[in-house]
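Entry 14: structure prediction run for Ribosomal protein L16 Arg81 hydroxylase. Input pasted below.
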Amino acid sequence: MIDLIVEVLGGDRFLAQDLGRTHRVYPASSADRDRFAGLLAWAALNQLLDTHRLEPPRLRLSADSATIPASEYSERRTYRRMAPWEAPQPHLVAEQLRNGATLVLDAIEEMHPPIGAMVSTLERHLRTGVQVNAYASWTAREGFGVHWDDHDVIVLQVSGAKRWRIYGPTRPAPLYRDVEFDDAPPEHPIDEFVLQAGDALHVPRGWWHAAAASTGQHSLHLTCGLSTHTGIDLLSWVVDELRAQASVRADLPRLADPDAQTVWRRQMSKLLAERLNDPLVIDAYLAARDAASGARGGFSLPHAVHDRLKDDPDLQVRLVTPRAVLHRTEQTLTLEAAGQRWTLASQATPLLEALSSGRPATLSTLAQAGNVTTDQAVDLLDQLLRSGIIAVGEA
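Run finished. Output tokens:
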């Protein structure tokens, strides 16, 4: 499992100086040209395309900033018990790609375990949601033209080469839902370069850019889109929290006299100011978002259907909520994950810390970490399995 932040992007330097601030290329050494090859081999991509029902917009072909109609490369199939769908035909897709189209596959982390494992590590580091899209192209024709994204992007060049132009921002920190939009990109790029296999690139939110396969080479790259945490997000969360206040839930004093409305406005201002003046409000917001973050996978058949987990020392256990939150006191440990909360005895701390590392562990290893028997460990793990927090299975 590759750790992008530490092994590729420079760890704390990336977090402190690059993320969301400036574009930067992270070149691979000649010995590291294949460092992303294990994330998505061509054979693996072919298998995904062959074995999954992938419909637009999740799978799409694009050229010159336009999406190619699925009817131009698909065949309609009907089923007795399923909705009909447009099945992409390999020879027609290849023809479109020869003519300059780009193939895009969204949210590939949900289908391909190596990328899913990388995403879990990224989310644990960055404390935000991550979606990975795969892009494959063969010509210098651009699939999307000059554009900007409403999220920070980390690009991983898996195979071949991609030519990039970076233009920079025209509107600071634009949003998906914004009050105005700037549709005119800068006239001239501020940087041009070619990403080779093994290279990585960071492009901040709102920075105009364009990309195309380098002439004479194919290109396969992954784009990791990082969900943002903005002031709007925090204020929305604070307002949701204030629903606990009866005065906030009450009707607006729209028919009251001006003096009464002034009293109401001052009361609202005080409530907001008190919450925003809390020096821990940002940490509290991030912890709440972490605790609400859902699971990534977790099917555990046949074990999850049994009345109780089998006491098998070699049973593999893994946490499927990468952003689980642990709160420790001398007597208790509180676990928050996927919108749920458990309060446990502090003796469970070593076991849950081992799980929260994100690495799979055997039942015996977890029991040893918690200084309990495997049967005692099963008592806790069985609860977490039934709540969708962990997955179990054979190695």
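Notes: The longest strand covers residues 152-169. Will compare against the previous run tomorrow.
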